[in-house]
């Protein structure tokens, strides 16, 4: 039987915490274009119930359809995937790579402001965690604790496993190798589960990209550092590592990247003002 090349499968994975803006239009249209021929999926990243709203989810479907996009149904919603995230978390715990943490942001800031700590470094999730709770055992974990990955321990566990991913770009794909020292100092012990949510962005994304058979993750360049974390988690969980494409961000006139609260650039505002989907494509340079 003849086997053709594997079709690409991409996804757009917004959180329903606000209206989609021009940056989302760019991300969604880029992911959909990369899946031609292939499959384009939509995933609703709604793990943070306190910030997500059903009306924003409804607006996502409406705005994407207006842009002319179509996607596979049913749509995966992360709020329905808790069991899969728990299984992955428990696996990482059973490998001895996690610890409970009860530090608040204020505690972390205070620990890092001690004179011997030098200038605090920030990583993809904010300040690099100083490791205050690292010696705590999982048996000591309570409901108010977050669960962190001990990055140094995880990298020791992965000793000998090649840590890299392929980044596709406008010209040639290139290999991005991960640097262990950089992961420890500039990423650190990331949170795998927040007490209020029961999982985290990093863990849920990795579990779902694998479950949905995503072959290419298309995301903004602001998530480049997060991709490194995801490759570590994929290796620990023995999941396939997709290829990644980090696209440029759409910025406002002052050069600032658009935020969800920036309703002035919401897709539906352009629609309401009489723009067509083609006008929106021109505005974002597609
Ligand atoms: N849900 C994330 C966001 O809205 C993006 C998901 C991803 O590409 O990993 O920024």
From TrEMBL:
A Pfam entry, by short name: tRNA-synt_1c
GO molecular-function term, one example from the UniProt record: glutamate-tRNA ligase activity
SUPFAM superfamilies with a match to the protein in the record: Nucleotidylyl transferase
Record GO biological process: glutamyl-tRNA aminoacylation
Record keyword Nucleotide-binding present: yes
Enzyme class: ligase
Record keywords: Aminoacyl-tRNA synthetase, ATP-binding, Ligase, Metal-binding, Nucleotide-binding, Protein biosynthesis, Zinc
Gene Ontology cellular component list: cytosol
InterPro entries for the chain: aa-tRNA-synth_I_CS, Glu/Gln-tRNA-synth, Glu/Gln-tRNA-synth_Ib_cat-dom, GluQ/Sye, Rossmann-like_a/b/a_fold
Entry EC no(s): 6.1.1.-
Residue intervals of the Glutamyl/glutaminyl-tRNA synthetase class Ib catalytic domain: 9-278
Domain of life: Bacteria
Stored PANTHER family: GLUTAMATE--TRNA LIGASE (PTHR43311), GLUTAMYL-Q TRNA(ASP) SYNTHETASE (PTHR43311:SF1)
Family of this protein: Belongs to the class-I aminoacyl-tRNA synthetase family.
The protein's name in its UniProt record: tRNA glutamyl-Q(34) synthetase GluQRS
